[in-house]
C-alpha cells in the first residue's frame, strides 16, 4: 500500500497538539493531516473536512459496518475514528500525521508496525488545566470528562517511541520536526 511514513501524535486535551501541529505543518508542507470522523460538535472555527468530518452517530455506525475505519474509539462521550480511504490516498503521496488518542495509536501500530508514535506531554498538570480552560471553548462538564483521562493518557506515554514536552510551542514543534526528519527522510 503505502509510500509515506505514518506519524501518530497523542497528548491530553489542551496540551497544545493543534497549536504545535500547525507550526510543524507550516514548516513541512509535504506532510498531510489525517482527517478523523467524529460525532462531537464542531468548536468555533473548526471546519468540516479539514479539522474533522463531523458526522451523526448513525453515520458513524454505518461507517463502522462498512469497514471504513483503520481504527476507531469511543471516548469523552463521542466516537472518533480514522477513515482508511483518505489515509491511504495521502500515504501514497507522502508522510501523514494523525492526531489520535492512545487506544487508536496502539491499533494503528498493530496495523502498521513502522508507524512512529509521538506523545506530547505538558510541563505540569497545572499548566495543562490552565491551557484547557484558557481555550474557552469547552464546557465545565467536558473539562471534567477530559481531566478524568489525563492520568491514564500520561501512563500510556511509556509505550510511545518519543515523548516531547510542550513547554514553549516553537521548541516543541522544532523537536517534532527533528524526529520527522530522522524517521522519514
Ligand atoms: P489540543 O489540540 O492538544 O487540545 P490546543 O492546541 O487547542 O490543544 O491548545 C490548548 C490551548 O493552549 C490553546 O489556547 C493554545 O493557544 C494554548 N497553548 C498551546 N501550546 C502552548 C504553549 N506551549 N504555551 C502556552 N499555551 C499554549
Ligand atoms: P478533541 O475532541 O479534543 O478534538 O479530541 C479528543 C481526543 O480524541 C484527542 O485525544 C484526539 O487525539 C482524539 N482523536 C481525534 N481523532 C481521533 C481518531 O480518529 N481516533 C482516535 N482513536 N482518537 C482520535
Task: Describe the fold and architecture.
With 185 residues, the chain is of the alpha/beta class. 44% of the residues lie in helices and 22% in strands. The chain is built from eight helices and nine strands. It has helices at residues 17-27, 57-65, 84-93, 102-111, 125-134, 140-147, 150-156, 169-184; strands spanning 6-10, 32-33, 36-38, 52-54, 69-75, 78-83, 96-99, 116-121, 162-165. The chain has a five-stranded parallel beta sheet, with helices on both faces. A four-stranded mixed beta sheet has the order 4-3-6-5. A hairpin with a 2-residue loop joins β5 and β6. The protein is globular and about 40 Å long. Bound molecules: adenosine-5'-diphosphate and guanosine-5'-monophosphate. Adenosine-5'-diphosphate binds at residues 11, 13-19, 131, 134-135, 166, 168-169.
- Specify the CATH homologous superfamily: P-loop containing nucleotide triphosphate hydrolases
Count of helical regions: 8
Task: Provide the residue-averaged pLDDT.
Answer: 95
Side-by-side strand order of the widest sheet: 2-7-1-8-9
Shape: globular
Secondary-structure content class: alpha/beta
Q: Which stretches are low in confidence, meaning pLDDT under 50 for 5 or more residues running?
A: none
Helical percentage:
40-55%
CATH architecture: 3-Layer(aba) Sandwich
End-to-end Cα distance = 19 Å
Q: Tell me the CATH topology.
A: Rossmann fold
Amino acid at each position: 500500500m503505502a509510500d509515506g511514513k505514518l506519524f501518530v501524535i497523542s497528548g491530553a486535551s489542551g496540551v497544545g497538539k493543534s497549536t504545535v501541529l500547525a507550526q510543524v505543518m507550516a514548516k513541512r508542507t509535504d506532510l498531510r493531516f489525517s482527517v478523523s470522523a467524529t460525532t462531537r460538535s464542531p468548536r468555533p472555527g473548526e471546519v468540516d473536512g479539514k479539522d474533522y468530518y463531523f458526522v451523526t452517530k448513525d453515520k458513524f455506525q454505518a461507517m463502522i459496518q462498512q469497514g471504513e475505519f483503520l481504527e476507531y474509539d469511543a471516548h469523552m462521550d463521542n466516537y472518533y475514528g480514522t477513515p482508511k480511504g483518505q489515509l491511504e490516498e495521502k500515504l501514497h503521496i507522502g508522510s501523514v500525521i494523525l492526531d489520535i488518542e492512545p487506544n487508536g495509536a496502539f491499533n494503528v501500530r498493530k496495523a502498521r508496525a513502522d508507524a512512529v508514535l509521538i506523545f506530547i506531554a505538558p510541563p505540569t498538570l497545572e499548566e495543562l488545566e490552565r491551557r484547557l480552560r484558557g481555550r474557552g471553548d469547552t464546557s465545565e462538564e467536558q473539562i471534567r470528562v477530559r481531566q478524568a483521562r489525563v492520568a491514564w493518557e500520561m501512563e500510556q506515554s511509556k509505550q510511545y517511541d518519543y515523548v516531547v514536552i510542550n513547554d514553549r510551542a516553537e521548541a516543541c514543534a522544532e523537536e517534532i520536526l527533528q524526529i520527522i526528519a530522522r524517521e522519514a527522510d
